[in-house]
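Ticket #4471: structure output looks truncated?

Reporter: J.K.
Steps to reproduce: submitted the chain below (117 residues) through the standard prediction queue, then opened the result file.
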Amino acid sequence: QVQLVESGGGSVQAGGSLKLSCAGSAKISTFSVMNWYRQAPGKQREVVATINSLGTTTYAVSVKGRFTISRDNADYMVYLQMNNLKPEDTAVYFCNGVWRETGSVYWGQGTQVTVSP
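Returned output as attached by the reporter:
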């Protein structure tokens, strides 16, 4: 069973930074795509950032220029560097991966990010 575990969430003031980590139980290179999603209270889960096996990245408009997704295939890790955080970034952040061989989708349990004004 493939597992993804997020860490690095916390509480910061607006303008601050946090770096989220996602540790996989399998090599990250075995996932064709890795994503970071977030879900704020009362809202639908939304994709924040995506990185594929070639290292190509895409971002939601709301975070472009502030967030950076990266992957380290050797270390089973995916990261989300979040800078210039805003109160509207407050949400539970989830790591998500698509298994290359089967297309199965795996989720982490989430990590809370709270940004105060």
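Triage note (M.O.): checked the attachment and the full token line is present. The first strand starts at residue 4 and ends at 7.
Status: closed, working as intended.
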